[in-house]
Amino acid sequence: xxxxxxxxxxxxxxxxxxxxxxxxxxxxxxxxxxxxxxxxxxxxxxxxxxxxxxxxxxxxxxxxxxxxxxxxxxxxxxxxxxxxxxxxxxxxxxxxxxxxxxxxxxxxxxxxxxxxxxxxxxxxxxxxxxxxxxxxxxxxxxxxxxxxxxxxxxxxxxxxxxxxxxxxxxxxxxxxxxxxxxxxxxxxxxxxxxxxxxxxxxxxxxxxxxxxxxxxxxxxxxxxxxxxxxxxxxxxxxxxxxxxxxxxxxxxxxxxxxxxxxxxxxxxxxxxxxxxxxxxxxxxxxxxxxxxxxxxxxxxxxxxxxxxxxxxxxxxxxxxxxxxxxxxxxxxxxxxxxxxxxxxxxxxxxxxxxxxxxxxxxxxxxxxxxxxxxxxx
Length: 377
Known about the structure:
- With about 375 residues, the chain is α+β, with helices and mostly antiparallel strands.
- The chain has 17 helices and 14 strands.
- The strands form five sheets. The chain has a four-stranded antiparallel sheet with strand order 6-7-8-9, with no helix packed on it. It has a three-stranded antiparallel sheet with strand order 1-2-3. A three-stranded antiparallel sheet has the order 10-11-12, with no helix packed on it.
- A hairpin with a 5-residue loop joins β2 (about 100-105) and β3 (about 110-115).
- α4 (about 60-70) runs parallel beside α6 and α6 packs antiparallel against α7 (about 140-155).
């Protein structure tokens, strides 16, 4: 198995030279939301900064998302900077997976705040590297993605009794007492799992697809998915003790991933059908709730603009045209007021609104289909 230090070293020269490719329009249409994200949230050295928190944190999530968006935008230079910063600061040249949180310490210095990794970010890192390798024909990115995948399999995937393969949210802190595990449904985008199952056919990815579907179906009794769920060997899936079945800022991504899944995926419709409580709420109320008790179905508040943006692919996949139009209008109105909607809202806009604008698609086999590919034909 190639260790973390190997793929960090293997990609060092690549990250410095990746900008040498020919200049190319980012897509057939401009992507102003990406340009605004770069302006407001990415430093010149490739660090994605969340200014909404006091420690001015950067997360592995933000870095991995940034790399995905840079690939969608055909922005090789930004992709290289994002990966270089992530490798140098979150990886620290060691064998471990990227630390999930980096920022300002109590003594005023900057560095890793929590060395635990976040498996959703690790999946997005691996996917972005693998697809950059394929689309830009850069073998070193592909090698780095496969090396990271080996680390994910080794440290973040486990076999749960009476269930099978499952992605833990991180290597530490999610296996509890009494054969209980904390899980996060939004950490399992189906298109990414399809891709990983193809590039690593001997890996656990196909099995993980099946258990991920069980997690989403079983944890969403009212058609709303929770931020966190628990699994116990005796009782199976149950509400998470800490968050008590609430669905909010994490959960919104699960609807997003379901909507972006290609209609040709054999599980696409079943995945979406498990989540239709959210679709019914938006159709009846004109906006998504900020929080939902997924056990009772009781909803609370109005979600921020990022929630509306994140639901665009989902509402389109269900052909809910009136609800879709209403959320489109909400997103466009907020964007017209400010190009900076904050880190997380901006991320959800890039994912959901970017998909709606046609900046990219996922094929049924998990391949990324950025719009700039068609510009080259």
